[in-house]
Amino acid sequence: MPKTIKDSPLSAETLAILFTKLKTMESAGLPAFQAVDVLQESESALKQPLKRMQNHLRKGMPVSEAGYKAGIFNSTHKTLIHAAESSGTLAAVYGQLASYYSGLSSRIKKVKSRLYLPVFVLTVALFVQPIPALVQSDITPFDYLSMTVGRLMLISASVYFLIKSPRIFESLGLLSFYDDLLLKIPAVSGWIIKRQINGFYFILALMLEAGVAFSDALPKAVDTIKNTRLQACFKPALAALGSGGRVTEILSNVSVLNRSALQIINSSEHSGQLASGLQRYTRLESETLNLQDEALAEWLPRAVYTLICIWMAYSIVGSNFGSIMPTDL
Q1: Dihedral sign of CA atoms 263, 215, 253, 207 in order
Q2: Which residues have CB under 8 Å from 74's CB, separation 6+?
Q3: C-alpha distance from residue 78 to each of 52, 64, 201, 239, 259 (Å)
Q4: Residue 164 half-sphere exposure, CB side, CA atoms within 13 Å?
Q5: Counting beta carbons within 10 angstroms of the beta carbon of residue 211, is it exposed (0 to 12), middle (13 to 18) or buried (19 or more)?
Q6: Largest interatomic CA distance in the chain
Q7: Domains plus CATH for the chain?
Q8: Dihedral of CA 23/28/32/37: which sign?
Q9: How far apart are the C-alpha atoms of 296 and 236, rounded to whole Å?
Q10: How far apart are CA 181 and CA 220, in angstroms?
Q11: Exposure winner among 54, 106, 178, 184, fewest CB in 10 A?
């Protein structure tokens, strides 16, 4: 499945469980307020948001609005679910979202699980490497703590900054600069564009299938693109919405959309099956992206091990080289 839906208020794992259960209960014909009652019993972590959602439902709000006001759904969920309610395809949309978040949660867990051991090895290496120097009194206990705990704190702070950097730059009013910088790094740029564009197609297809008009669906799908510079590439298409042109003609104004995708959109539009054509394309593209994610999860720990080995070898060789050098040189 595609990579991200912007600003999801809950974790991918929680949303996967939530939408899976909502789909099951919707397919069984259970009314929304009863389904929420059942969820309150089984999902203790969501008890308060679900309680707020239940209160909104009892006031006559639709599921999309009640979930949004309760902080469970984001704006994209709200639009999709509202359209699904109107078209009677709520179970299908719940199923698509459940599949999306299940895949996302699985990939996140896989990468994390494969990084636990490298992180442990790195931590051990940080504490073991300076021990010979400490035993030989070449460094003081304070130096040892600085070289171990100090380095560990520095690495932790760097990783934390890397993870939180989008929010940090956003709080400083520099998000556009940060997004622009990411798109100027070749390897990172390709990674971001492929995943966020595929996510855009996925949301657009879901909205079209749920009955949302293209003129309404396009701005909402564009809004799910996280990178502001990449999002700005869609301005010509958004401006062309009022021209009455075909979908293919409007999207042709976006420079980052590849020709193969536009050809599929064109043929799907001609056959009157734009939503299903887009879904097939995103499914095939997602398979390729998932393979890349698998490769990342496989090679990232190896890269960490390699860096640790190089660092350890350098520190050992460096210290030994200094001890065997003649003193008169």
Answers
A1: negative
A2: 5, 6, 7, 8, 9, 68
A3: 16, 5, 18, 24, 31
A4: 9
A5: middle
A6: 90
A7: 12-100 (1.20.81.30)
A8: negative
A9: 34
A10: 25
A11: 184
The token pair that represents 63 in the structure block: 């599921």
Round to whole Å and give the CA distance between 237 and 247. 9
Side-chain half-sphere of 47: how many Cα atoms within 13 Å?
Answer: 4
Rg (C-alpha) for the chain, rounded Å, is 26
CA distance 80 to 73: 10
pTM of the model: 0.75
Which amino acid makes up residue 291? L
Handedness of CA 27, 30, 33, 37 (dihedral sign): negative
Tell me which amino acid residue 29 is. G
pLDDT value of position 3: 45
**Residues found in the chain:** 329
* Residue 294 to residue 297: CA distance in whole angstroms: 5
C-alpha 197/C-alpha 213 separation (Å) is: 20
* Average pLDDT, consecutive stretches of 10 residues, N- to C-terminus, the chain (329 residues): 54 91 92 89 86 92 92 87 85 89 84 82 86 87 91 90 87 90 89 91 89 89 91 94 89 92 93 91 87 81 82 68 48
Which amino acid is located at 296 in the chain?
A: L
Is there a contact between 247 and 173 (Cβ–Cβ < 8 Å)? no
